[in-house]
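The pair is listed for reference:
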Amino acid sequence: MNPTFGVCNLSLVSLRTEPSDKSELCTQLLFGDHFTLVEMTEKWSRILTAFDEYEGWVDNKQYALINQTEFDALTNINSILALEVFHKAAKSNTRSILNLLAGSSIPHTVDGFFYLADDRYKLEGYSIDPNKAEFDSGISNAAMFYLDAPYLWGGRSIFGIDCSGFTQMVFKQFGIRLKRDAWQQAEQGTTLGFLQESRAGDLAFFDNEDGRITHVGIMLNNQQIIHASGRVRIDSIDTQGIYNTELNRYTHKLRIVKRFN
């Protein structure tokens, strides 16, 4: 029987819309992200991610195969890497050291060691177990970790991130699982009646001329929002939308505000 599961065993891997290096980036896998294999070709695999049920194509050389037991174990893992630029993980019996990124999923460690697929690693530092109870006190600082990170369509790291990747990775620090795209996230949470009711950690969603939700950001208070647009930035917001003082105009039209905690 062909293997049907895999796990990302590199720091950051591209997931593409088509099986080609020239294809558009649709999202990224971080170390420890696991998935179901939907289709395999000689070079590419079409996968469905376990975390957010997102589908795309990954290079066969950029992941490791795992079995059902390993897949289930990874699904039950809650530990992730906290908000630091790099976390080093040394692969045992080699000189290979991976620089892992914030939000990467880490199997249970014993004396700093953990296993992923067939490899043993030594984590320099520590992982955390996200706690939703810390959301209210920690959400603003978590969002600020990504401040000035460059915008990258499909990105999920401090080195390049898009609007919904930003909200997803920040919320992951508190154990709140968001879908990948802004329109999907807009289907989660509880809708607020008025912008003035919003508080730090609420998500504001914005639509285009066709009424499609195309953008999302994290409220810092009921007058400021942090979001990925060109870079992760802080802007003013009112009932009309986001106002960019550098451009002296509104850039995003407000649709709804939702609460997730």
